[in-house]
């Protein structure tokens, strides 16, 4: 399950039930494609938090809409 916040708050990616290898693939994909993400951390509860930079806008959000 993937949940993206539509506001300018951190984007939340639910990865609790995904294997670590799959999570790493997501990380490298996001790192290579969405270069504007400068913070990516996996919390103790298995939630991947993506925080976009201040220049985050609706055009960037469109990357996740399809």
UniProtKB/TrEMBL annotation:
The chain crosses the membrane at residues 26-44. The keyword Transmembrane applies. It comes from the Eukaryota. Keywords: Membrane, Transmembrane, Transmembrane helix. This is Uncharacterized protein. It comes from Choiromyces venosus 120613-1.
